[in-house]
Design brief:
The chain is of the alpha/beta class. The protein has 19 helices and 22 strands. Strands 19-15-20-14-13-21-22 form a seven-stranded mixed sheet, with helices on both faces. InterPro entries: ATPase_NBD (IPR043129), Carbam_trans_C (IPR031730), Carbam_trans_C_sf (IPR038152), Carbtransf_dom (IPR003696), DHBP_synth_RibB-like_a/b_dom (IPR017945), NodU/CmcH_Carbamoyltrnsfr (IPR051338).
Length: 551
């Protein structure tokens, strides 16, 4: 069975292909169009489809649209209600519903040869749930979905057994943890539906002194649902105009909202465990990208295992829609083995890109050793290896790497990327070394939890330690990521540190680098010392200061 999943209606348009229950390819449209998040989540953009991502998924598998048995669209307009009736201030939302109803014909136009009758609507939160519950390594698990909005709800709690979802409860709009966090993001001067992770980072600089007031507006209701709506933000602190400096009041408001969110999520997790008794919890939805909250659920919640979909935001509903339709047709899903589901290039193809760009390059005996040597010299390395990641985290395929032992490298990398100074960078560490340095859920291959850094290590790897003494780590399994593991081992031989700084290979406001052209453009425009692209190394001094090409 060949099933394509599509997410398109709100933001982060994406496509995913599942063949015989196995995830073959998944990609976000932003990586092709180079527009952050693919588009803004406004009704007038609802018609835009992930044309390039869908075409690539099919091309990668050697399929045409005619070969598809089904296409899952991660929104069901029959479940929607008028925005006003749901308490939402969105007068043009009816355009979304119109576009959603016409999605089968739009998709048939975008993918010539596709039979529009093969397009099936999958409820938005069911698609989120499937992306977690069906892709997780635990075949039977409770599932918790929280985001801004779907058709008429913002939350789903349920359980998967033998590939079948039992929905236990949902939370109807306008109550929405995702929308409340979006409102806070805008109040603090950031771009809503985009910069929520900045609020989470800023929260570490504040104290939760508004927590009592916020609990009046954000709290669990004891029945698996919650109240989260109409928070009087300005009564708590004045808004921050975009581009202006943040104040302690702003950091305290972020910290208070973050703390309130964590409390509420713990209440929901405990309720769900009480109803299911499940040992494992799978999570998805944009709120599940809040790695600080995830860590509290793992540490203080009742579940033995917590697994979060790496593409937990709306992009992941493309995968969930495909997995849901496969399960409906009796095809059990194979667990998701990694997030490297996007585009990749052979060594010869990469060499062709370098020669066309006329940049001097070399092929060292081992690119891992060459990168480790550059990092040990305190160089910044752009790392472009294998297939690109599905989801918002750089996981050792499209990364910027640096030495973690120099505190100034945090400011240096934020300067390279053009980011706010309060933003942290993350550590990569070999899985078998993580427990001696970091305390928290292990393994953690997708950067979806935060970990306390052991005190003896905080001075040794200061670049990756956030102001609150935590780090959002990626553990590296040599069997799954042998090249990254070799690089970490080579760096430790040179420095005594089994950790390397890892942040996404992009600059502010732009999607992560995806193809070789993107990598060369980023390397050419940012102060990066070495580009490791496949087995090849491009050094800044040679590329922009003379030197002959070698191979």
């Amino acid at each position: 069975m060949r099933i394509l999943g599509i997410n398109a209606l709100f933001h982060d348009p994406a496509a995913a292909l599942v063949v015989d229950g196995r995830i073959v390819a998944a990609a976000e449209e932003e990586r092709f169009s180079r527009r952050k998040h693919g588009k803004r989540p406004v009704p007038f953009a609802a018609w835009e489809l992930p044309r390039q991502a869908a075409a690539w998924c099919l091309e990668h598998a050697g399929l045409t649209p005619r070969d598809l048995d089904a296409v899952g669209y991660s929104y069901d307009p029959d479940l929607a209600r008028p925005a006003g009736a749901m308490g939402l201030d969105d007068p043009w939302d009816h355009l979304r519903q119109t576009y959603a109803r016409e999605a089968p014909s739009f998709l048939a136009d975008a993918l010539p040869g596709l039979d529009a009758e093969r397009v099936r609507f999958v409820p938005h939160h069911v698609a989120h749930a499937a992306s977690a519950g069906l892709a997780a390594p635990h075949p039977d698990s409770a599932v918790l979905v929280l985001d801004g909005r779907g058709e008429c709800a913002s939350h789903l709690a349920g359980r998967y057994r033998a590939g079948t979802l039992e929905v236990l409860t949902t939370q109807v709009l306008p109550q929405s943890l995702g929308l409340v966090y979006e409102e806070l993001t805008e109040h603090l001067g950031f771009l809503r539906s985009s910069d929520e992770y900045k609020v989470m980072a800023l929260a570490a600089y504040g104290k939760p002194r508004f927590l009592t007031e916020l609990r009046e507006h954000m709290h669990a209701t004891g029945d698996g649902g919650f109240h989260a709506h109409a928070v009087p933000w300005t009564a708590l602190t004045e808004p921050r105009p975009p581009g202006q400096e943040w104040t302690q009041d702003h950091a305290d408001l972020a910290a208070s909202t973050q703390a309130c969110l964590e409390e509420l999520l713990l209440d929901l997790a405990r309720w769900l465990h009480g109803r299911t008794g499940a040992r494992a919890l799978a999570m998805a939805g944009g709120v599940a990208l809040n790695c600080v909250a995830n860590s509290r659920i793992a540490a203080e919640g009742p579940f033995r295992h917590v697994w979060v979909q790496p593409a937990a935001g709306d992009a992941g509903t493309a995968l969930g829609a495909a997995l849901h339709l496969a399960a409906e047709r009796g095809e059990p899903a194979a667990p998701m083995e990694g997030a490297d589901l996007g585009r990749g290039w052979s060594d010869e193809e990469l060499r062709g890109w370098l020669e066309r760009a006329r940049v001097p390059y070399e092929r060292p005996p081992d690119i891992a050793e060459a990168v480790a040597a550059e990092l040990a010299r305190d160089g910044v390395v752009a790392w472009f290896q294998g297939r690109s990641e599905y989801g918002p985290r750089a996981l050792g395929h499209r990364s910027l790497m640096a030495h973690p032992g120099r505190a100034e490298n945090l400011e240096r990398l934020n300067h390279v990327k053009g980011r706010e100074e309060f933003r942290p960078v993350a550590p990569m560490v070999l899985a078998d070394r993580a427990a001696e340095i970091f305390e928290g859920p292990l393994p953690s291959p997708y950067m979806l939890f935060v970990h306390d850094v052991a005190k003896p290590w905080r001075e040794r790897i200061p670049a990756v330690v956030h102001v609150d003494g935590t780090a959002r780590i990626q553990t590296v399994d040599p069997a799954r990521e042998p090249l990254v593991a070799r690089t970490l081992a080579a760096f430790e031989r040179r420095t005594g540190l089994p950790v390397v700084v890892n942040t996404s290979l992009n600059t502010a406001g732009r999607p992560m680098v995806d193809d070789p052209r993107d990598a060369l453009e980023c390397f050419g425009s940012a102060p990066v010392d070495l580009l490791a692209i496949g087995p090849y190394a491009v050094r800044r001094g040679r590329a922009y200061g003379g030197g002959e090409e070698t191979s």
